[in-house]
Amino acid sequence: MSFYSHELAAILIVIFVGFLPNEVWRVLGVLFGRRIDEDGLWMQWVRAVATALLAAVVARLLLIPSGALVALPLWLRVGGVASGIAGFLLVRRSVLAGVLTAEAVLVLGAWWLGIR
User: Fold this and answer.
1) SS3 34
2) Could you tell me the pTM of the whole model?
3) Which residue, 41, 71, 78, 108, has fewest beta-carbon neighbours within 10 Å?
C-alpha cells in the first residue's frame, strides 16, 4: 500500500466514524427544533441547567486549575474572569469578545510575570 492509500483510508475513517454520525443528530435537531417553544417551561429549565454547568466549569478553572492555568496566580485568573465579563458586557453581550478579552489578560499577565 502506498502512502496515499493510507491517507485516503484515514480520511474515510474520519468521515464515516466522526462526521456522519454527528451530522445525523444535527439534522434531526434542526427538524425537531422548529417545534420547540423557546419560552416554554422545559426550555427555561434547560437554559438554567446549561448556565449552572457553565458557572461550575468556570469556578473549577478558577479555583482548582489544571494544565497551564496551574502556573498562574489566583489574582491573575480572577482578573481574567473579570475582564472577560467586562468584555462581554461592553461589546453588546458578545461571547467572542469576552473570551478574547479574558484570554488576552491571561496571556499578557503570564508574559509579564515571566511564566512560560
Assistant:
1) coil
2) 0.67
3) 41
